[in-house]
Amino acid sequence: MAREDRGNVWLGVAGVVVNNLGEWLVVMKRYGGLHAKWSFPAGFVSRDETIDQAILREVKEETGVACTLIQMIGFRSGVIANKISDNMAIFLLQPIEENPILQAQLSELYEVAWKHPRDLIIDPASSAMIHELATHTLENGFDTIDGINPGDVFGYTSFKVFITKTR
Fold first, then answer.
1. Which value, in Å, is the radius of gyration of the alpha carbons in the chain?
2. Would you say 115 and 134 are in contact if contact means Cβ atoms under 8 Å apart?
3. Which candidate, 118, 22, 114, 123, places its Cα nearest to that of 65?
4. What is the pLDDT of residue 2?
5. Residue 39 and residue 62: Cα distance in Å, rounded?
6. How many CA atoms lie within 13 A of 78 on its CB side?
7. Is 136 helix (H, G, I), strand (E, B) or coil?
8. How far apart are the first and last CA of the chain?
9. Residue 141: half-sphere exposure toward Cβ, Cα within 13 Å
10. Which of helix, strand or coil describes residue 120?
11. Is residue 42 within 8 Å of 13, Cβ to Cβ?
């Protein structure tokens, strides 16, 4: 939970990690508005990474689980106190190992666990975002287009486009 000056526009990431039993990897936060609530592994994007790199890093740091990115499935945006634009890309992930060892980042979390979405819906300790995502189909996300060079003049070291799936 390193504090950086994020300015007034924040960019975060959250990961919906689904195992082979259909359970979600959830964390119980020790701080902030999600204190003592089940939420998704999440965090802020560092200045030297793309959003998809950030979510893989955040999930590994918070839970010990290495993942494969499936796709971006949503984007959350809000304004805090008319002062801060708070934005979050939401990704669908799967663990690389079938039964990974869970290791909670105790400086930020009370606990990490696998829980089924139907149980999270009725759990009063579940965050609002968990409740919302548990009622939607997660597979209808965005395709990732990688390897684009928009022009050397921009100086991108990484460039990706997340776009609605083609029909």
1. 16
2. no
3. 114
4. 47
5. 12
6. 6
7. coil
8. 40
9. 20
10. helix
11. yes
**Which residues face 89 on adjacent strands?**
13, 75
Could you tell me where the DSSP H helices lie in the chain? 51-63, 117-122, 128-134
pLDDT band at 145 (very low <50, low <70, confident <90, very high): confident
pLDDT in tens, 81-97: 888 899 999 999 999 99
Q: 107 Cβ partners below 8 Å, 6+ apart? A: 1, 30
- Measured distance CA(50)–CA(42) in Å, rounded: 14
Query: What domains, with CATH codes, occur in the chain?
Result: 9-164 (3.90.79.10)
Lookup: tokens for 123: 């759990």
Tokens of 27: 């964390």
- 115: helix, strand or coil: strand
How would you class 86 by CB atoms within 10 Å of its CB: exposed for 0-12, middle for 13-18, buried for 19 or more? middle
Q: Give residue 1's pLDDT.
A: 44
What dihedral do alpha carbons 96, 72, 15, 13 form, nearest 10°?
A: 130
Q: Whole-angstrom Cα distance, residue 144 to residue 124?
A: 35
DSSP annotation of 15: E
113-139 mean pLDDT:
88
Query: Tokens 């009370």 sit at which residue?
Result: 110
